Amino acid sequence: MKKFKKFACVAMASAMVFAMAGCGSDGSGNGSGSADATSFKIGGTGPLTGGAAAYGQAVQNAAQLAVDEINANGGVNGYTLELNYQDDEHNAEKAVNAYNTLKDWGVQIVLGSVTSAPCIAVGDKTKDDNIFQLTPSGTAVDCTKFDNAFRVCFSDPAQGTVSAQYIGENNLATKVAIIYDSSDPYSSGIYENFAKEAENYSFEIVSAEAFTEDSKTDFSVQLQKTKDSGADMVFLPIYYSEAALILTQANGMGFSTTFFGVDGMDGILSGVDNFDASLAEGVMFLTPFASTSTETNIVNFVSAYEEKFGETPNQFAADAYDGVYIIKELIEKSGVKPTDDVSTICNGFKEAISNGYSFDGLTGKGITWSADGEPNKAPSVVIIKDGVYQQL
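^ that's the sequence the OP posted. Answer follows.
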């Protein structure tokens, strides 16, 4: 169980911002700020290459956009922000190596990791170093198992529960099949809670087919069993790269049905080489952000992101952007300085959160955090229609 001090650390849950800026005076090498430091050092790890690169690149881009905006507007309490993002290739061991590189740099606040397994691995290290960690998109429960770690996104249990509720309450299906990655805590965690919550609704789970990291290129067996089950909806608690293969192979075998995913689906329209995006038409998935929203803050963010990076931001970008601004507000409310040691910074953040801090951002308004590091905000669902995400 988390201690109360974690409750305060949670306020950064909006942009994977590994808030390493102030929670460690244990001889880890980055416990004290430089006496003449004028900037807060924010570091993060995420997949900048490999199959999940669309997530990490989006987080890095949006975090940098937010840092540049904040610095251009005078910084935070007279200080600037620095961002250093390292590639972990969606690999736990490489994420730890990337974190050690950040420690050598003098990281004070961590925005990351982006995906769950690396986030859990890095979390063990940030706990030892007592550094404040905020993941924008690490959804596994253990990503926030220590009192220095918080998240901007929903956890796996929340995504599984909310997905089952949405399907049941909106009568989207009568027979649901599931294809999930049993080797991945993100995917298996969502699946388990989806199956548990589904017991409260009238739809039936008619098939649950697993694959692993070593067998995620050929889904013909899983799809055939799913097709034979008579499912009128397939729930995919997986990442977009595997989902693209499943959609392609389902089309090749003449299996037409409705697909429903979670936030890992974000990126399927642009993150997969040689994928026929028309096959994703009609796919629904949970996300706290839709780039087609007409809300002023989202319109402005999308415009700035597209102008700078030449592409439309996804949910991971929105989480990261929010995360940096959460860190900014926590610095303002706590009054910490870049010359403070990491424990002073972390404790200041936690105190601000425990005093009722809430955040209005791209991914939710009035966001608060519970004592276990979970954000409290309303979920939303989008559907891919005419090649774009449209909010339902």
